[in-house]
Design brief:
The protein is an alpha/beta fold. It has one domain: Rossmann fold, CATH 3.40.50. Helices cover about 30% and strands about 25% of the residues. The chain has 4 helices and 7 strands, in the order βαβαββαβββα. Strands 1-7-6-2-5-4-3 form a 7-stranded mixed beta sheet. Strand 3 and strand 4 form a beta hairpin. The longest helix is centred in the N-terminal third of the chain and has 14 residues. The relative contact order is 0.25. The mean pLDDT is about 95. Bound molecules: adenosine-5'-diphosphate (ADP) and magnesium ion (MG). Adenosine-5'-diphosphate binds next to helix 1 and helix 2.
Amino acid sequence: MDMRLFSVEQTQQVAQQLAKLLQLGDCVALSGEMGAGKSTFARALIRALAGDEALDVPSPTFALLQPYDTPVGAVFHYDLWRLSGPDELYELSWDDACEGIMLVEWPERAEELLPEGALHLTFTHGAEEEDRHLTLHGWPDERLAAFMKSSARA
Ligand SMILES: Nc1ncnc2c1ncn2[C@@H]1O[C@H](COP(=O)(O)OP(=O)(O)O)[C@@H](O)[C@H]1O
Ligand SMILES: [Mg+2]
């Protein structure tokens, strides 16, 4: 499935809709080139989970992991661009993260350690400055359809 995101605000609204559907044990894999919108999406999602619009959500480019305590449970935001190899994940709370809510930028770097049931979101640039194309796969059809439906109303 796929959708168009015509503005930063629309990307943030879709992230807020996804936040309502996430449960402990879920993993959201965010793919796309630099500047595609992965961190923008993750930031809006984490703020929604935390119930705090002003929460500081730094990009975990150097630490690789930024954890959060939220009312929904523990949230683990990864940016694996600088990961040396999947084994390094065990030093980055990966096992605990698999039982919380995970947001993973550059998920291909986790190789086979990425949870099987992950929702894969891939961002690509469109024709206009704020235009993005988002493709979605990995969740059962029914769950994906619920997300698409709530996003269409956003
Ligand atoms: N529709 C959109 N969705 C997300 N970001 C957008 C959009 N339009 C423009 N942008 C801009 O693109 C940039 C995306 O950066 P970022 O989210 O850090 O990307 P990434 O984490 O994929 O490298 C931000 O400057 C953001 O304001
Ligand atoms: Mg990023």
